[in-house]
Design a protein that fits this description.
By secondary structure, this protein is mainly β. It has two helices and eight strands. β3 and β4 form a beta hairpin. It starts with a helix and ends with a strand.
């Protein structure tokens, strides 16, 4: 809830000028990630593997905003079914330096398949990692809060890598 309130505050006060978006400050990010379920979700599912695609606009040298879509499949344990999450999210990234550490937050909604009793829930992914011109390496925490109160929430820790498709370098 705290992350949701902070990010809502940042997005509501931000006056993003999308007219400044061009080939030099807008990137397509294609990524692979893996996750390990925690809490009750660990009892029914094992390793998760996924892909992501996002479009990021670097509003300033230190911050980027964008949209993201992904697909993450958690393999079922024993007789349990695989659970697939398809998150759609807004993303915010903070880059203190042109290369090095970054912190990010993705918030949105994740559609779920294979988890009985729900079709989705609210999605959040705080992350921290290293960024370079063409590659990002990061660790993250996923949380999907299902809409139904009697269905478990999905939580996982993971690692990922993205390749930055830069349309035109400055």
């Amino acid at each position: 809830m705290l992350a949701l309130m902070v990010s809502s505050s940042m997005f509501s006060k931000a006056q993003v000028d999308f007219k400044k978006a061009d080939e030099t400050n807008t990137w397509l990010k294609i990524g692979l990630n893996t996750a390990m379920p925690i809490t009750d979700f660990y009892n029914t599912n094992t390793l998760g593997l996924g892909i992501d695609a996002s479009l990021q606009f670097l509003e300033t040298k230190a911050s980027g905003i964008g949209v993201k879509v992904g697909l993450l499949n958690y393999f079922g344990k024993d007789a349990n079914a695989d659970v697939t999450a398809i998150p759609l999210a807004l993303m915010f990234r903070y880059y203190p330096e042109s290369q090095g550490w970054f912190a990010g937050l993705e918030l949105g909604y994740a559609f779920l398949n294979g988890l009985e009793g729900t079709s989705g829930g609210y999605f959040g992914r705080p992350q921290i990692g290293l960024h370079y011109d063409y590659w990002n390496f990061f660790a993250y925490y996923d949380m999907i809060l299902t809409e139904e109160t009697d269905v478990m929430d999905l939580q996982a820790f993971g690692i990922g890598v993205t390749y930055n498709v830069r349309f035109k370098k400055k």
